[in-house]
Amino acid sequence: MTSPRTIAILGSTGSIGRSALEVIAGFPDRFRAVYLSANRNIDLLRDQINRFRPKGVVVSDPERAAALRSSVGHGVEIMCGAEGLLEAAGRDDVDVVLSSLVGFAGLKPTLRAVEAGKVVALANKETLVVGGELIMKSVRAGRARLLPVDSEHSAIFQCLQGEDPRTIERLVLTASGGPFLKVGKEKFPGITVAEALNHPTWRMGNKITIDSATLMNKGLEVIEAFWLFGVPPEKIQVVIHPQSIVHSMVEFVDGSMKAQLGIPDMKLPILYALAYPERPATASRRIDFETLRELTFYPPDTEKFECLPLAFRALQMGGTAPAVLNAANEVAVQMFLDGELSFSAIPFVIRDALNAHTPMHAFTLADLERIDGDTRERTRRVQATLLT
Ligand SMILES: NC(=O)c1ccc[n+]([C@@H]2O[C@H](COP(=O)([O-])OP(=O)(O)OC[C@H]3O[C@@H](n4cnc5c(N)ncnc54)[C@H](OP(=O)(O)O)[C@@H]3O)[C@@H](O)[C@H]2O)c1
User: Fold this and answer.
1) Do 344 and 200 fall within a single domain?
2) Domain boundary pick from 148, 173, 205
3) Domain housing 346
4) Protein residues with CB under 6 Å of any ligand 1 atom
5) How confident is the prediction for the chain on average, in pLDDT?
6) Are strands 168-175 and 246-252 parallel, antiparallel or unpaired?
7) pLDDT band at residue 2, thresholds of 50, 70 and 90?
8) Residues 167 and 135 in one domain
9) Largest pairwise CA distance in the chain
10) 102 touches 207 (CB < 8 A)
């Protein structure tokens, strides 16, 4: 019998991290969680330590790390901060790094995992949006393997098994449409945080749930697909599919299409990435055509959901423009969640940031960090002027 795959989960206290631990618990002979990480949720991390007995954990802030150290005792290494994440991502005793941090914070540890030649199961789409060029260059130069966890990209990856990538005619990313699919744009200024967090088909972390409500999530996924599959923007299409059963599709040059279907449950694409190229049996809920009845598809309303065309625009601008899109979006979403920005102002501040940016086309990680910081500062300033 082969030994279990060792897995470092960066962001084990998040929605993807928790689902991944459920997957791992279901396959103790196949997988072992060796490193875990948390930002603020130390109580949950302590429970995860007691249940999964990892070799080590990473905690963002030194005070929380000290508190955890005194309560879990010896036997578990406690690392701290951004350095700790880099350490866990590159350790020799890790086979697979699950990159499930949210936002820009995922970029450096994911890059480290790629440079260390790991299998990287990638949930953190912002990493490819911001640093796709650096990540893919490093993947091509080394031994690392990038496996998508996002359900749409996992679907496309599954559709492409056994296919020649040169025969791709079009990628079709499906989108549920979020909670405001049928809400008129004139209602957008009054949308509350609770309404925006009420996603119809998926239970996820707050940031991606707001991104789904604005359709920025689909825009970020278009950029993610561009990097993962090497398909130009004009060959990537978004369609609204409210049932979230068809996870995405590929059209080939002969006119035929392949789609991947399944019930909306992130444990399925997580398992696919962790076990690849095997496909272990599960007792997950199956599609029931008696109750399903219909699958519907229609084009997105890009006048109503302005974030989607903004993402296409950033991709067309190229270079550092998607990093600006991402930073402005992260700030705008957090401000909306904190009650400091209206839902309808989110695309406004992102457009303003893109308008002000002249993309660099040759850049380093340090350039990306500087541009990310500058954009965050500028976005907060613009938001302040909106309030005065
Ligand atoms: N959720 C989904 O169904 C889903 C589906 C597809 C793709 N994704 C992508 O997967 C990623 C994670 O999403 P999620 O929904 O799981 O997010 P989430 O629930 O908010 O979890 C984020 C994780 O990252 C940690 N974290 C947050 N900020 C951090 C920082 N600055 N430094 C270090 N750690 C930090 C959090 O720690 P604490 O909780 O301890 O604060 C948590 O463990 C996102 O990029 C998202 O777009 C998610």
Assistant:
1) yes
2) 148
3) 163-260+298-387
4) 11, 13-17, 38-41, 60, 100-102, 105, 123-126, 150, 202, 204-205, 207-208, 266
5) 96
6) antiparallel
7) confident
8) no
9) 66
10) yes
